[in-house]
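Key result, reporting period 2: structure in, sequence out.
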């Protein structure tokens, strides 16, 4: 049953239905649609449009439908026959018409009263906000899960030192926990972006009608409050046209996926035969059909690879929205598939990131060895010379020449005899050797945000405490 059949003489073509119908994907908003409709029926009653009895019948039928639809949705997920409420067998255009048709089926004319003063334009804007808001809460928990796994990995390996890189060249040694905490900072920002998004999007479009508001005196504040919004949207044109909240969700997801992708990339490299810093659990890796020795980091590669579709969805919706005149246009129905897919993929990637981190085993010996190689204590030598009154630039130059000498002799800086060092600079004395030890350089960076044991331990405990509070 089309909701708008009156002025049409013939039905929609099957090809038109393919391009036009959104029920195949907007069925995920079934419970939000019903929740919004219950509030709308209460508002209509208070406005004198429905009697108390009519409202009670509508609310009863909607609640019944909600239970049935939720059953159907979970059965559909399990690929089972969903019986009467099979969305796939329905010829309804979208979830809003589907719910309304089911209501009319149950209640007859009373069901036909619910849409008074309402449009699918303010309805879809409300439903989708409710849907996004619910997912903000679950995604928040997923992000916290990754933070927890990073903190656990850091706690298991508090002494471990790995090479720190710039340009993928060994630069300066760092604590492994410092590396974990770097990703904790990124994910904390992702969390706060989710929180910001919720603050901005939590306004209720219902009562905006198709575009110009409604003639029925519904209490928009009461509707907003009942649906958990902070306030009603303040302009009806904007309320039905705004999809910023979807764009923001896609941006927050994209940024977070970018973080997960860098985390994945670091771990893929650390896991490589060349680095050999860590092993991944069997549960998150796969083998090769041809090469029996292979154990591939597929979970991490997919965390990196799935960025493509998530970034694509952000770009797609930006392009869809950019030329649209006010107010609603059907182009905007394209807001959903990318967002639904993004939420699914981001959720999966956050969960798998936790599993990978929980499974990883650090090869501390190998990390230490690599951290000590590559002349990563050259900065220490330059800083040492600064302590001896040498200007930093000159110290930098001397340390560079020492590195050349070490390369020449095929040894580490600390393995060069004092005579070789003094031939380059007479400022270098015997007390240079402790300075060249791995831990020395690391623990010298005892400044807020630095990699010393003391600062890292403090930061780790602070974050564990923060996590507890998020609880
Ligand atoms: N299925 C539509 C969407 O997702 C609902 C709104 C339809 N409104 C309309 N006037 N055709 O955007």
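The corresponding designed sequence is given below.
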């Amino acid at each position: 049953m089309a909701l708008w059949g009156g002025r049409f003489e013939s039905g929609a073509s099957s090809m038109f239905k393919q391009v036009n119908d959104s029920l195949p994907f907007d069925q995920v908003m079934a419970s939000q649609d019903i929740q919004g409709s219950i509030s709308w029926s209460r508002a209509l009653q208070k406005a004198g449009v429905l009697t108390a009895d009519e409202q009670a019948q509508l609310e009863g039928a909607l609640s019944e439908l909600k239970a049935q639809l939720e059953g159907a949705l979970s059965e559909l997920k399990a690929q089972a026959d969903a019986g009467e409420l099979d969305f796939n067998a329905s010829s309804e255009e979208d979830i809003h018409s589907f719910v309304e048709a089911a209501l009319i089926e149950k209640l007859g004319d009373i069901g036909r009263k619910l849409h008074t003063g309402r449009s699918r334009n303010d309805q879809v804007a409300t439903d989708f906000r409710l849907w996004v808001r619910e997912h903000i809460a679950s995604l928040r928990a997923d992000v916290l899960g990754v933070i927890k796994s990073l903190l656990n990995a850091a706690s298991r390996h508090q002494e471990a030192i790995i090479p720190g890189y710039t340009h993928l060249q060994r630069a300066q040694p760092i604590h492994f926990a410092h590396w974990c905490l770097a990703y904790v900072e990124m994910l904390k920002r992702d969390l706060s972006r989710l929180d910001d998004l919720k603050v901005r999007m939590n306004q209720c479009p219902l009562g905006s009608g198709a575009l110009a508001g409604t003639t029925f005196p519904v209490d928009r504040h009461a509707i907003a409050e009942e649906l958990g919004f902070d306030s009603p949207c303040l302009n009806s044109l904007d309320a039905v046209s705004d999809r910023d909240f979807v764009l923001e969700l896609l941006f927050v997801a994209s940024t977070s996926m970018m973080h997960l992708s860098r985390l994945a990339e670091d771990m893929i490299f650390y896991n490589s035969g060349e680095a050999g810093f860590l092993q991944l659990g069997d549960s998150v890796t796969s083998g090769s059909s041809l090469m029996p020795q292979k154990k591939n980091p597929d979970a991490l590669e997919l965390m990196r690879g799935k960025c493509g579709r998530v970034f694509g969805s952000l770009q797609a919706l930006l392009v869809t929205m950019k030329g649209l005149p006010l107010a609603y246009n059907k182009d905007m129905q394209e807001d959903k598939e990318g967002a639904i897919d993004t939420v699914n993929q981001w959720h999966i990637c956050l969960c798998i990131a936790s599993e990978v981190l929980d499974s990883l085993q650090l090869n501390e010996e190998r990390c230490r060895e690599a951290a000590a190689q590559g002349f990563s204590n050259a900065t220490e030598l330059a800083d040492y010379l600064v302590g001896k009154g040498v200007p930093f630039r000159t110290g930098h130059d001397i340390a560079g020449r020492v590195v050349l000498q070490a390369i020449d002799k095929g040894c580490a800086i600390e393995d060069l005899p004092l005579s070789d060092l003094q031939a380059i600079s007479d400022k270098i004395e015997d007390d240079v050797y402790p300075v060249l030890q791995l831990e020395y350089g690391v623990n010298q960076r005892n400044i807020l945000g630095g990699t010393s044991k003391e600062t890292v331990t403090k930061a780790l405990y602070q974050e564990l405490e923060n996590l507890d509070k998020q609880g």
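The radius of gyration is 30 Å. Residues 78-83 have pLDDT under 50 and may be disordered. This case is discussed further under Risks and Mitigation.
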